[in-house]
C-alpha cells in the first residue's frame, strides 16, 4: 500500500498542539498493523491518530455528556492532549507505569510523542512491546472514562495482564508462540505473577 507524503488535515491538526514536524506518518500507520492482531486495538490507535476519539466536547455537542470538562479531573476541557497526557490523573498513570516497568528492568521510553504515536520504526521486540504498552495504556484510560472509574496503577496492571492473556490465547491457535514470547518476554511472566 502506498501512502501519500502530503500531510492530511488530521496530521496538520496535531501541529497546532505539539511539534510533530518530524513524525513519520507512514510508519505510524504501519505500526497499528505491526503491533496488534486485535482489530479493536488497531482501530483505537487509528482513530486516535485521526483525532476522532470521542471525548466530552464532542459528546456534549451530541447531548451525550453534561460537560466538556475532563472526566477525571473535571477542571479543564477534555482535549486529546489533556485527557491522555496532561490531566493529573492520566499523567500519574503514565509516570506510575513508567516507574513500575523501569523498576522491573523493562524498556519504556516514555514521552508524549511516543505515548501518542509509538516508536516510529520498531524493529526489536522490546520496541514492539513498548508500542503495545503505549496503545494499551491509552485504551485503559479510555475504558476507565466509559466505565466511570478513576484509573489506578493496580487497575492498569490487571488490564495489561488481561490483554496479555487474550493475546496469549489467540496465538495458541495461530501457532506463532515464538513471536509472542520474544515480544512479551519477561513482562509476560511479571504480569502472570501479579497476585503472587
Mean pLDDT: 87
Counting helices, strands and paired strands, the structural category is mainly alpha
Helical percentage: 55-70%
Question: How many E strands?
Answer: 0
Distance between the termini: 46 Å
Which word captures the global form? globular
Number of domains: 1
Order of helices and strands: HHHHHHHHHH
The Cα radius of gyration reads 17 Å
SSE layout and pairing:
Layout: H1 9-15, H2 25-35, H3 39-49, H4 56-61, H5 80-86, H6 88-103, H7 112-117, H8 125-146, H9 153-174, H10 177-192
Helix pairs in contact: 2-3, 5-6, 8-9, 8-10, 9-10
Can you describe this structure in just a few lines?
The protein has 196 residues and is mainly alpha-helical. It has helices spanning 9-15, 25-35, 39-49, 56-61, 80-86, 88-103, 112-117, 125-146, 153-174, 177-192. Helix 8 crosses helix 9.
Could you please describe the fold and organization of this structure?
By secondary structure, this protein is mainly α. It has one domain (18-192). Helix content is 63%, strand content 0%. It contains ten helices and no strands. The chain has helices at residues 9-15, 25-35, 39-49, 56-61, 80-86, 88-103, 112-117, 125-146, 153-174, 177-192. α2 (25-35) packs antiparallel against α3 and α8 crosses α10. The radius of gyration is 17 Å and the shape is globular.
Amino acid at each position: 500500500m502506498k501512502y501519500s507524503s502530503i500531510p492530511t488535515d488530521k496530521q496538520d491538526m496535531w501541529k497546532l498542539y505539539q511539534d510533530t514536524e518530524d513524525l513519520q506518518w507512514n510508519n505510524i500507520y504501519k505500526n497499528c498493523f505491526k503491533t496488534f492482531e486485535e482489530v479493536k486495538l488497531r482501530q483505537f490507535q487509528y482513530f486516535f491518530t485521526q483525532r476522532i476519539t470521542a471525548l466530552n466536547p464532542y459528546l456534549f455537542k451530541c447531548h451525550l455528556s453534561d460537560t466538556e470538562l475532563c472526566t477525571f479531573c473535571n477542571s479543564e476541557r477534555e482535549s486529546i492532549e489533556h485527557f491522555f497526557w496532561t490531566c493529573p490523573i492520566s499523567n500519574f498513570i503514565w509516570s506510575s507505569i513508567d516507574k513500575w516497568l523501569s523498576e522491573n528492568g523493562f524498556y519504556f521510553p516514555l514521552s508524549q510523542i511516543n505515548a501518542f504515536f509509538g516508536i516510529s520504526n520498531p524493529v526489536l521486540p522490546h520496541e514492539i512491546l513498548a508500542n503495545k504498552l503505549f496503545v494499551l495504556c491509552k485504551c485503559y484510560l479510555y475504558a476507565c472514562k466509559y466505565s466511570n472509574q478513576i484509573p489506578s496503577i493496580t487497575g492498569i496492571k490487571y488490564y495489561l495482564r488481561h490483554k496479555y492473556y487474550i493475546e496469549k490465547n489467540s496465538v495458541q491457535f495461530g501457532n506463532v508462540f515464538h513471536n509472542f514470547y520474544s515480544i512479551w518476554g519477561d513482562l509476560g511472566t511479571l504480569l502472570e505473577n501479579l497476585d503472587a
